[in-house]
Design a protein that fits this description.
Elements: E1 2-6, H1 20-32, E2 37-43, E3 51-54, E4 57-62, H2 67-77, E5 84-88, H3 94-100, E6 105-110, H4 122-131, E7 135-137, H5 140-149, E8 157-159, H6 178-187, E9 194-199, H7 208-221, E10 225-230, H8 242-250, E11 257-262, H9 269-273, E12 278-281, H10 292-298, E13 303-306, E14 322-324, H11 330-342, H12 344-360, H13 364-375
Parallel strand pairs: 1-2, 1-5, 2-4, 5-6, 6-7, 7-8, 9-10, 9-12, 10-11, 12-13, 13-14
Antiparallel strand pairs: 3-4
Helix pairs in contact: 1-13, 7-11, 10-12
């Protein structure tokens, strides 16, 4: 059947500037397009043509200097020619798009808490829920949040955990990738260190400041440890703000090595996971479920994550990672880092189990198969 994907207005697809939703779409398209014709509507980008076709996938990119302009341009391109219109993370758009294409079925993919009262009012939320055939969510946390606000949505909610392409990641413990890992670590001056890795946007809610505070204690006790921070304030570039300046000032007080890579293109991210020895997700907000967990698992890294939002849903403590309950206490994160540094065999075992789980459970083919099953119900 013919399916339209309506992407958010923030970042283009494919993910030339990054973005979890954009990476998700790119990951499942090769599998979905074996069965359906898919048109991906997204934001215009100077890095991509306005329209292109690859097999059963067509990309249409429109101007969107504001949300309203973007939605209007999407509406101008949407007709009843699509059997199903799958809207990503914008429940507010379902009704106006339905008016434009009344003969199409609709579904919704939720990647954040988009049904909160500050995002959508009750009347419109209920109309949206009644209009869509099904809703997918990236975590049980997101699904339960919608159900708690709108019990009527329960039968339409489906948790579809995101995924990763394990083949793009070189497990840090694999002998055949050891030279590549050594070369990259040497490039950053980290070849003689135990590296604690952070990958994500530099914002307070992502928690790099808490990790930096934890590293004060770690570096005093373990002089050979280093911190590598991969990411920037926002996707696609290296603009700074007050927080990024504060963060870089904070690390000046650390006794060990600290590396800021800044923004890296998405294709560079997988190999940079191989620099680390321990991965830390220090989320301080109600994180839907950070996709860096899947990436760190694919890289074979032992994971430390905070128990925020849906993060802990994919981590079984002591099995494929460690969960920090006291998420805002640097001492609690430092305790977990210290444990892994002191128990290298356990750390290695946790990393190897994470890789196995990524290969078997959190791959794009599994994500696509779950979506295909839902598409078949429409």
């Amino acid at each position: 059947m013919r399916i339209a994907f309506i992407c958010t207005e923030k970042l283009p697809v494919p993910p030339v500037s990054g973005g979890a939703i954009q990476i998700y779409i790119e990951g499942v398209l090769p599998y979905l397009s074996m069965h359906h014709e898919i048109t991906v509507f997204g934001i215009k980008s100077d890095k991509l043509p306005d329209e292109e076709v690859f097999g059963n996938v067509r990309y249409k990119r429109v101007l969107g200097r504001t949300k309203n302009e973007y939605l209007d341009n999407i509406k101008a391109n949407i007709l009843d020619e699509y059997h199903l219109i799958h809207v990503f993370n914008r429940p507010l758009w379902v009704l106006p798009l339905k008016e434009q294409a009344p003969g199409s079925y609709f579904s919704l993919s939720l990647h954040n808490e988009m049904f909160m009262p500050n995002k959508i009012n009750k009347e419109r939320a209920l109309k949206c829920i009644n209009t869509v055939e099904f809703i997918t969510t990236v975590s049980r946390f997101i699904a339960d949040g919608v159900k708690g606000l709108y019990p009527v949505a329960e039968d339409k909610l489906n948790v579809v955990y995101s995924g990763v392409a394990p083949a793009l990641y070189s497990p840090v413990y694999a002998e055949e990738h050891l030279e590549e890992r050594k070369a990259l670590r040497k490039k950053y001056g980290l070849d003689k260190h135990k590296v604690v890795l952070f990958v994500g946007r530099l914002s307070q809610k992502k928690g790099p400041q808490v990790l930096v505070q934890a590293m004060q204690e770690i570096m005093e006790a373990y002089p050979d440890t280093a911190l590598m921070i991969v990411g920037s304030k926002w996707y696609g570039g290296n603009t700074n703000d007050t927080f990024t300046h504060q963060l870089k000032t904070m690390v000046e007080g650390l006794k060990g090595s600290v590396v800021f890579t800044g923004f890296l293109p998405p294709y560079e991210i997988p190999r940079h996971f191989s620099v680390g020895d321990i991965f830390v997700c220090a989320s301080q907000w109600r994180e839907p479920l950070a996709r860096v967990h899947y990436e760190a698992m694919a890289a074979g890294l032992p994971i430390i994550t905070t128990d925020r939002g849906g993060n802990a849903e994919v981590i079984r403590s002591g099995y494929n990672g460690l969960v920090v309950k006291e998420f805002n206490r640097p001492e609690a994160i430092a305790e977990k880092i210290r444990y892994l540094l002191n128990h290298e065999a356990i750390a290695r075992s946790i990393g190897m189990m994470g890789r196995k789980i990524a290969e078997e459970q959190y791959n794009w083919e599994r994500v696509a198969n779950q979506l295909l099953e839902l598409f078949a119900t429409v």
